[in-house]
Queue: 3 jobs
Job 1
Amino acid sequence: MRIILLSFLSCFAFVSQAQQGLEGIIVEKYYVSDEADSLDADENFAVYPLGIGSVTYRVYVDLLPGYKFIQMFGSPEHPLSISTTTSFYNDPNYGFAVYQGTSLNNTKKNTTLIDSYLTVGGVASGLMGVLKTEDTDGSIGNLQGILANTDPSVGAPITGDNGIDGLMPGAPILPNTLGVAGALDVFDQTAGSEFLIDNGTIAALGGVEGVTPSNHVLVGQFTTDGVLSFKLNIQIGTPVDGESQIYVAENPGPNEIQLESLIYTSPEIVSVKEITPNVSSNQFVVYPNPSEGIISIRNNTGAFEKCNISIIDMAGKQVLVSNGNIQGATIDASQLSSGIYTVRIDTADHSEVQRLIIK
């Protein structure tokens, strides 16, 4: 594998030019997950849960006009690492570890749009990743009505009437990957916290440019409820055919340029929480679930407790409220449309959130 990687690198002449084509790495805070997103992930049996408050980061290579992204690589002298203090979230249905031409329709489903993966610009069939501040054509939306959080820390939402999803028309290519197979597991429904390679590459054969004049190329998207860190090494092609530049995070050798922004650590995420699974260890049981509209709530302690019950839809709107004493309470929710809801039960000393499916 070492020979394969070196032969790929040798396709381009390494030159030292006065002008550096790689201006830096841009990390965009793309989305912050909310309760509806977390419930959807739980409903679809995500291996690692999507904590409420998890952040989706996008990482872009910022190139001068006329320069092309060639590859992101790791070598014995320059290991490449992308890590988190927890785990990376992956959509259990249509997620992927490396961009693979997912259809537009599947990109709209569940949490695919905030999946964790590596890429050489592509996000969906016919669509390239761009900064939300450069997106001019709105949002593709979401078929489950989720990914609708309007957290002000990420600017515009990524769905809805005013949504901006950071997708623009283009011609994505599939990444060429060498020496990364096992390391990719952390982006594919497998527990783990670090993608690490010291003899591999994620490459764009022939090079790729951004689809906006700023020439930003998306190289990865990562969703985590922990701290994101990376050390990257990048090769780019210059406007002169056959010439390239190599940028490394640390310990530059001959014809290599060290760039400070290739090393990054995100701020620590605070107040991340998870939806409490609907299991027998909870104090309350909500049944039947799924339900056709009439639901019962049982207190596993056997006590009669004064409580407040709220049913919340996927948009975060409270659609039904009931107050009283609970032991074997029955609630008529038949007026609600089919879909996924949150049941919140609050007593004097306990709060519990459970998922409810109305058929």
Job 2
Amino acid sequence: MYDQFYGFTGRPFQLTPDPTFYFESGTHRKAMSYLGYGLAQGEGFIVITGDVGAGKTTLVGHLMNTIDPSRLTAVKLVSTQVEGDDLLRLVAEQFGIEWEGQSKAELLRTIEQYLRDQARAGRRTLLIVDEGQNLAISALEELRMLSNFQLGGHSLLQIFLLGQPEFRQTLFHSPTLEQLRQRVIATHHLDPMEPEEVEPYILHRLGKVGWTGNPSFAPEAFELIFDYSGGVPRKLNVLVSRLLLFGAVEELHRISAQHVRNVIAEIESDRGIDETSLAPMPVEEVVAHAATAAAPGSEAPLQWPAPAADTDVLELGSETAVAAPAAPPAADEAQLAELRGQIESLEARLVEQDAALRRVLDLLIEWVERDPDNAPNPATSQVWAA
């Protein structure tokens, strides 16, 4: 929707990795250098790790776009939690090798013959294994065995391993993977982007879809975007995509720091909503629930005002005195005041979200009226009417 409002030719911040939008940050430049070095060596393992959304898949996709397919056969395997034998079948399938009915020994010979045929045809073979943290130790050992295939003293297969940070722990600290570690010729961890890279990153992706300055961004907006996303590309994409949607709904042509704060508040509010029930709990029920909630550090729930039957009895020598009911602790009153403030904030956010949804609906109706072909089909008309 926002791409139409701003006249973009596409959506620059989609979550699906797209090498077209590759941005060479400092950490990605280093990773590309290691990958290029590995390709020049033509052997061994190259290991690239990074947090979720760091851009590992986009990085490798960009690399593949720069390679001549007539000289290099590259296949990619997204691993799951499989053992060694299953991994061999997945590799064979990616190479286009029929594996059904073959024993492990026969399958290994078939894969080796395929690699030899590729080498004789003047093509090198590269296997890219993504989500390496899911691989079992036995699967990693099978990859090592595949890397042993040679022809004329040259390796027949090179392997790139991509994974999340925990994969480094498995790879470099498992005592059973010493032989594989000796075949790792380069490794790099993708760090988040630096604060000064966020603005060029955003403008780079916008430029890929025909952005001409609408919307513009206040410098403080980029600072808040970095603070919230931590420089992680996927988190940043989520935030800026929501920000552009907000801008389209509000018909903004300049994104300010306050607009970023508003969108961040919406995202956080969305995460805090109980999806099983969108209706907020009545204030009276929340207060009543809070009155019986356990105080911090206590086992039993608070009971105040105390019921008459629970009146404290103090024995003073031979005399018995009835103590007056204890007053509610000041800390509990403060908790209730805080709860009331949170409830009021939540109600205000719900009102804001309702208004935003109504604005979106108005824009959609206006869009449909401009072009009748966009009208929803009868099966969904009741949803729009609602």
Job 3
Amino acid sequence: MSPLQPAALRRHYEQAAADKQAGEKFYNLLRDYAGHDALVLGYKAASEAIKARDASMLNKLTYVQQAAKTFERAVALDSDNAEIRFLRFSVESNLPPFLGLSKHVEEDKAFLLRAALQHPSSGMDDQAFQTVRGFLVDRGHVSDDDAQRLARVKS
């Protein structure tokens, strides 16, 4: 399996979110990616954000700004891709507001809620749907009513 297939990228992202060494490996995997696959660019942006998490104070902002630019490119290439929107949302919703780099949180949250409620016709596969639904509900990003509506959607 290619390391740039969605399932492999998801696995790398999940590991990188929890472990600094895995974060470095994930960043190195995608650092030199220069293609135009929107989803791969979304994961590249996520790897840059994870690199920012683990970088020195002097370098954090540089990586976060690079991630924001890469997310812009990914969304411009495929603005209807829920997985890309989820990656951007998961990063931006965790950034300190004073950075001014969380411009898309509400827009992406609304997009993801609509997409998840339309599953399976949203274009997300079951794994992506479960990840999005879990993140929205478990992190308290949706109201109790919306959480109940999401719980009724079959995956």
